[in-house]
Amino acid sequence: MSAPCTRPECGSTIHTDGWGKPTRCPHELWLTTAEAAQITAVIQPPTPDIIITGQDGRPLVTIHPSGQLEYGPGYTPDEAARTFWNALRRLAPARCPACGHIGMETP
Asked: Burial code of 58-74, b = ≥16 C-beta within 10 A, e = fewer?
């Protein structure tokens, strides 16, 4: 390249090597075929929403990855809280502090 670079970050510089020969812009990505064959694209799935649903399946509260709360029709804090804590108890039961068994009832 012997003309000024058109990339804004280069400020119209003419790129040359140490002997004054024109070279490619250092901001451009140039790969050999072997290097290109080693590139793997990774697609990350979007972070899921957390949805608390009522007994009839309607969404009570949706918690978005941004932290935004979206309340469903007929939302009541009591029903949403009861549903949340019941699910937590079912999926992560408490351990007895005395002996470590699962559940707070006496063994």
From this structure: ebbbeeeeeeeeeeeee
DSSP 65-77: TTS-EEEPTT--H
- Strand arrangement of the beta sheet that strand 50-53 belongs to: 50-53, 59-63, 69-71
Residues near 38 by Cβ (< 8 Å), separated by ≥ 6? none
The two three-digit tokens of residue 35, written as one number: 């290097």
* pTM greater than 0.90: no
Domain ranges of the chain: 1-43, 47-107
50-53 and 69-71 beta bridge pairing: unpaired
pLDDT tens string, the chain, 107 residues long: the values are 456 766 666 766 676 666 777 777 666 666 666 666 676 777 777 788 889 888 888 889 999 888 899 999 888 889 888 888 888 888 777 777 677 666 655 54
Q: What are phi and psi of 4, to 5 degrees?
A: -60, 145
